[in-house]
Write a structure and sequence with these properties.
Helices cover about 60% and strands about 5% of the residues. The protein contains 4 helices and 2 strands; from the N terminus they run ββαααα. Strands 1-2 form a two-stranded antiparallel sheet. Strand 1 and strand 2 form a beta hairpin.
């Protein structure tokens, strides 16, 4: 879904930026240019970044799996 219409940025691009190493809203903004024109996408972008950062990585999921055994 398009989040930033001004720059044509999608939610998947935002998630990819986080999975690629961006660890904050500021870093995503710097990398993609999101929220740099009208700003209407700010709330949605922040929500996507926070949700994506809260998803455990594959390694963390494996560690949780083995901790239970």
């Amino acid at each position: 879904m398009y989040v930033c219409l001004c720059k044509g940025i999608t939610d998947n691009q935002i998630k990819d930026a986080v999975f690629g190493g961006a660890s904050s809203l500021r870093e995503v903004r710097k990398q993609l240019g999101v929220m740099s024109q009208c700003g209407k996408c700010g709330i949605m972008t922040k929500q996507i970044v926070e949700e994506t950062l809260s998803v455990p990585t594959t390694q963390e999921q494996e560690n949780l799996f083995y901790a239970v055994n």
